[in-house]
Design goal:
A hairpin with a 2-residue loop joins strand 3 (121-128) and strand 4 (131-140). Helix content is 53%, strand content 17%. The protein has a six-stranded mixed barrel. A four-stranded antiparallel beta sheet has the order 2-10-1-11. It contains 15 helices and eleven strands.
Length: 454
């Protein structure tokens, strides 16, 4: 029997049992829609997380830290292996190179490094009109414009220049100052006060006798208000409420006493940077530059390190969601078996006639396998369509609800082409597996007994 006749006979058999074929196809499509929908949910979560990190430019950023300067969380993470440096756990500790301006020049000269800048965070007292609050002022390089938290502004805009005497506030901080109209703060002058020097005078501020911390004030114009806090460096402290240009931050950092305990132990060490950010030219160079930095004795951290555990979690999530979605597909595969078995019973005499005129067991087996694969193909296409439509409906409804709550909507379900193709292919494979037993059973029929069947 030639291949064309086999396909034609299989399609004719399916058309003769339209209702049963349609019901079986619907069962398969529901199973594929369930499986594809679950997987698209996992893909959507992963795409949101990795997509946001890519937009924030974090995949091409490496944080180089000095636990001795940071103390507290940074040192604790380093001791527990949370931040990997150039030495292994249990090895004899070796001091890391100091993160000063000379070291930054060396890091900037490394291959595939785009720029290097310090993570400057200065405790300040913010004064705007009658509002006073202690916050942390963070230095922001001009290269951050249009990235991460600085992609969109609730009010205002980014700094005009690196040496501009301006600042930006987070929306939460702005609402604390002017709850009814945060945008009214744009253009106003803020005063930043911070500890700046030590002189031989009477004891004050819990400093040993003979020392006194003086305070310095600087003014800046509020240029913009961002929606969310950009946060701090890993292990480097809490959130920030105000941001200043990197040039201004360096001036403040050169004057300020950021870590009083470090200053009292070693004034020269206190002026070393607690952490710096190394930006690579492309994300694919991140791991190579990390390895070089560890070889130089630095303690480094990047999103790539954090995502190694996250990728494993995503794999586990995808497996879990696949198992849930496969339940419906398993039930639908039983429907294929039932359809094929019933078809054998109805066509037993027909099978006997085909064998009597020369059809081989392999020809009979092919007919039933082709029928099963056609059901799987149709069910796969319909299932993918159902899954995509349901996912889009949930995305639209979820977006409306999230927007009503003041959040930023993001798609929950993401159905890429590769997932659609994989779902259809999997549907065909499952259908072939489900139809293999009925096909083998039909091929084993004795033609004499089949011809006697009523």
């Amino acid at each position: 029997m030639i291949t064309g006749d086999t396909f034609g006979l299989s399609l004719r058999n399916l058309r003769q049992s339209k209702l049963r074929t349609a019901l079986t196809t619907i069962g398969v499509s529901i199973g594929i829609a369930s499986l594809g929908g679950m997987l698209s949910l996992g893909v959507g979560f992963q795409d949101q997380i990795t997509g946001r990190l890519m937009q924030a430019g974090l995949f091409d950023s490496i944080t180089v830290m000095d636990p001795a300067i940071l103390g507290g969380p940074g040192a604790l993470l380093a001791e527990r292996g949370g931040l990997r440096g150039g030495r292994g756990r249990g090895a004899t500790p070796t001091p890391s190179p100091k993160l000063n301006d000379e070291t930054l020049k060396k890091l900037a000269a490394l291959d595939n490094v785009l720029e290097v800048y310090p993570n400057l965070r200065v405790p300040v007292e913010l004064k705007i009109d009658d509002f006073t609050r202690t916050l942390t002022a963070s230095g922001v390089p001009m290269s951050s414009k249009g990235q991460g938290s600085f992609q969109t502004f609730s009010y205002g805009a980014f700094f005009a220049g690196d040496s501009d005497a301006s600042c930006m506030l987070t929306l939460d901080t702005a609402k604390q100052i002017a709850e009814q109209n945060p945008g009214s703060l744009i253009g106003k002058t803020a005063t930043l006060s911070y500890a700046s020097s030590v002189t031989n005078t009477a004891e004050s501020l819990n400093v040993p006798a003979g020392l006194q911390v003086q305070r310095t004030e600087t003014s800046c114009r509020i240029a913009g208000i961002i929606e969310r806090d950009p946060g701090g460096i890993p292990g480097g402290g809490g959130l920030t409420g105000i941001m200043v240009p990197m040039g201004m931050a360096k001036t403040m950092d050169a004057q300020a006493i950021v870590n009083l305990q470090s200053f009292l132990r070693d004034p020269s060490q206190a002026k070393a940077y607690g952490a710096v950010t190394v930006k690579v030219k492309q994300a694919r160079f991140t791991q190579d530059v990390e390895d070089k930095l560890r070889g130089m004795g630095f303690t480094v951290f990047s999103i790539n390190d954090a995502l190694k555990g996250a990728k494993t979690a995503f794999i586990v999530l995808d497996i879990f969601l696949s198992l849930i979605g496969s339940i419906a597909l398993a039930v639908s595969s039983l429907g294929i078996v039932n359809t094929m078995v019933m078809s054998i019973l109805e066509r037993t005499r027909e099978i006997g006639i085909m064998k009597a005129i020369g059809a081989s067991d392999n020809d009979i087996r092919k007919i039933f396998l082709i029928e099963a694969s056609v059901i799987g193909l149709m069910g796969g296409f319909v299932g993918v369509g159902i899954g995509w439509i349901v996912g889009q409906a949930i995305n639209i409804g979820g977006g409306i609800y999230i927007r009503s709550q003041g959040g930023t909507p993001a798609p929950l379900f993401y159905f890429p082409l590769w997932l659609a193709a994989a779902s259809i292919a999997f549907s065909i494979v499952v259908s072939l597996i489900a139809g293999s037993y009925p096909a083998s059973r039909a091929a084993r029929l004795d033609p004499i007994q089949a011809l006697r069947h009523d």
